[in-house]
Design goal:
With 397 residues, the protein is α+β, with helices and mostly antiparallel strands. Helix content is 29%, strand content 27%. It contains 11 helices and 20 strands. It has an 8-stranded mixed beta sheet with strand order 6-7-5-15-16-17-14-18. Strands 9-2-1-13-20-19 form a 6-stranded mixed beta sheet, sandwiched between helices. Strand 10 and strand 11 form a beta hairpin. The longest helix is centred in the first third of the chain and has 17 residues, at 62-78. 51% of the residues are buried.
């Protein structure tokens, strides 16, 4: 592919940044990706790995639900090696859950999500460890993602174009601006301590919960609410499907199988600094109790690990209750329009399921800014295996 379109720097080596790099490369841009740690070492490497069909969001926002359904179908087609399409169950545990059932199914169907109530005995046949006390069950097209394999498949696809340079362990320490324009960024290579500058025609901020800090370096106010949550993992695969409580989205109401492990998540709070994320006292007992309501015996499984990771929610929030109200949608911001910096775009928010779509929207915005029309092809081309990333290697710093 030709590099006549120019050079773009993408800041952030998580799912959003790597998917954006891939789309840019496929459309002919030369791209340098900067990541201060290893690829996916931020939020992307710390989520529970659910492939969201959108059912969880259908009651709150039909558009987000449709978006998740659409993108989950694309990921199943282009990255089958990283997806386990095991579907999902929403289960009613008590009478309050039962009162939610009919409107939940209606909201899913209105969001183009096939949701079907099944008899409780059938649900118990699907999931042998599920509580025999459940009152109802609804099947939806959820699944699970191997976060590393999925994202590294996008990285392998970018390297395949020969338009990508990937620089891990490289941190942005300054953004150098003049006359409402970014001239370059200053970075430090943490493998050897060396500093250098990188110039480009355009810069994309895809730093997830750190996107506000990156924007601030350019003098741009960007509203990002880092919202951490705790996840708990036990050994043993207690379910085959993703199992969720049939109620309004809350804490500790999703169980996700990952190979030989079972994950219950998550809690949620607000953090001023995404680098300071510690598990809150009480989270672990709460998650055990929440899991027991759906899967009795969960607490008897051998503890594997627990962690917390910050969601990159777009918007301003004052407390944990407020942060629940923030949209799970994503936003692409052209800072020439918003902040008079003519060559920077930020892409924030979203979910792992929507990473490809986020890359498409960010790349569309870049194309519009420079006045070219190049169609997106990432929804139709099967990604290479994550193993190709290692076969090709990346150019490093």
């Amino acid at each position: 592919m030709s590099n006549r379109l120019g050079h773009i720097v993408v800041i952030g080596g998580g799912g959003t940044g790597i998917a954006t790099m891939y789309d840019l490369c496929r459309r002919g841009f030369k791209v340098t990706l900067i990541e201060r740690g290893e690829l996916t070492s931020g939020t992307t490497g710390r989520h529970h790995g659910q492939l969201h069909c959108g059912a969880r969001y259908a009651m709150g926002d039909r558009n987000i639900a449709r978006e998740c359904m659409h993108e989950s179908e694309i990921l199943r087609k282009i990255a089958p090696q990283a997806i386990e399409y095991n579907k999902g169950l929403f289960v009613a545990v008590d009478d309050e859950d039962m009162s939610y059932r009919e409107q939940f199914i209606e909201a899913c169907l209105e969001s183009d999500i096939p949701a079907q109530e099944i008899p409780v005995p059938q649900a118990l046949n699907y999931e042998k460890a599920l509580s025999v006390k459940i009152k109802a069950a609804v099947v939806v097209p959820d699944g699970t993602i191997d976060p590393w394999r999925l994202v590294i498949s996008f990285a392998a696809g970018a390297l395949e174009t020969q338009n990508a340079q990937i620089c891990p362990y490289t941190e942005v320490i300054a953004i150098n601006t003049s006359d409402e324009h970014i001239d370059s960024i200053s970075v430090v290579d943490h493998t050897n301590g060396e500093q250098r500058t990188i110039d480009a025609d355009l810069f994309i901020n895809a730093a997830g919960p750190w996107a506000g800090q990156i924007a601030q370096m350019a003098g741009i106010p960007l509203q990002v609410a880092p919202s951490p949550g705790t996840m708990l993992v036990v050994k043993g695969r207690m379910s085959n499907m993703v199992v969720s409580r049939l109620h309004k989205a809350g804490d500790g109401d999703i169980i996700v199988p990952q190979r030989g492990l079972t994950i219950i998540g998550s809690t949620q709070w607000l953090s001023e600094d995404p680098d300071i994320v510690r598990i809150h006292e009480g989270d672990i007992p709460f998650l055990y109790e929440s899991a027991e309501a759906m899967f009795p015996g969960f607490s008897e499984q051998k503890f594997h690990t627990a962690w917390a990771a910050a969601r990159p929610l777009y918007g301003v929030s004052q407390d944990a209750e407020d942060v629940r109200a923030l949209s799970r949608d994503f936003a692409a911001i052209d800072h020439e329009i918003a902040d008079k910096i003519d060559n920077m775009v930020s892409i924030v928010g979203g979910k792992a399921t929507t990473l490809r779509g986020m890359g498409e929207v960010a790349t569309d915005m870049v194309c519009k800014k420079i006045g070219v029309e190049i169609p997106c092809t990432t929804a139709d081309i099967v990604l290479p295996s994550h193993r190709e990333f290692y076969k090709r290697g990346y150019h490093g710093n």
